[in-house]
Please model this.
Amino acid sequence: MKKIGFMLLMLLMITSCGNEDGNETEQKTEGQEKPEEIQTLDVDFQVPDKADVGETIELKATVTYGDEQVTDANDVKIEYWKQGHEDDSTMVEANHVGEGIYASKVTFEEDGVYEMYAHTTARDLHTMPKKSISVGEGAQNEEDHEAEGHDHSEQDEGVAIHFDAPDTINADESVELIAHVENDGEGLKGANVRYEIVDTDWVDTEETAAGEYTGSYSFKEVGSYTVVIHVENDEGIHEHTEREIEIGS
Model:
């Protein structure tokens, strides 16, 4: 009897320890935080396929961060230009109209195909989806336009560089020069971006948001300058583009 009683006591102790270990394991599992999901800044840029000359149209950009509607974006601007004339672009503010939607009204005064970016900065991220619209007689050139690789409704693939400088720059005045860099439609992170001021000076940049690179420079003399934006990273990207800027007195 003593032997049987001893064995029953040992069995109860083992069962008790097992329950405690199980409870402890369950508590640890419940207490563990789920890994934080990586959120992305997404912009649904809504542009009509066609418009008439002189017609006022509304351009909309719906901004989301993960599942969240972004109602307080730092900056949403729409830049548009006639195809082949990117140096002669127009920038307009897009205002929040509710539920993460930012809108701006634009009127095109000439026939042609117009391209545009929705420059969007929010949550320390930057993205700039690209679209195009055919205006007036420009619709007749749409097939040729797409055959050249500019899809009417999708973002261009590959590396896209957009250089942003103030409209007015004075000599001996330090200005911020900003380049927005995309790869396959998304802001390119972690790239080495430098500005080459011809003839010849180099300006290193700092990545101030995903795909946005900023560097400051003071132009010493009045006149025309060529700025070459160089972009490269460890994954083999090495691109450059040139922009002309005028420096006043």
